[in-house]
Design brief:
Elements: H1 3-36, H2 40-47, H3 51-72
Helix pairs in contact: 1-2, 1-3
Length: 73
Amino acid sequence: MDAHTAEITAKLFLEQIRERLDDAAGVAKAAEACANAGNIEKAIEIILDVEQGIYEVTTLLNGASLIIRVAKT
């Protein structure tokens, strides 16, 4: 993969990472609001919604890192 293509791809991955982290932050705020209102069980139920997004962020981060490393060789 050439350096230009790698850079474009890595930027797209970073955009996707940011979007998922923004979503996760919103879910965390909702969970915190529930907890502060005294509904801990609902807060835990809500916060579990970030699990898939966090997995995807980790995968995208690994992919971006690999793409940049491969492009340097």
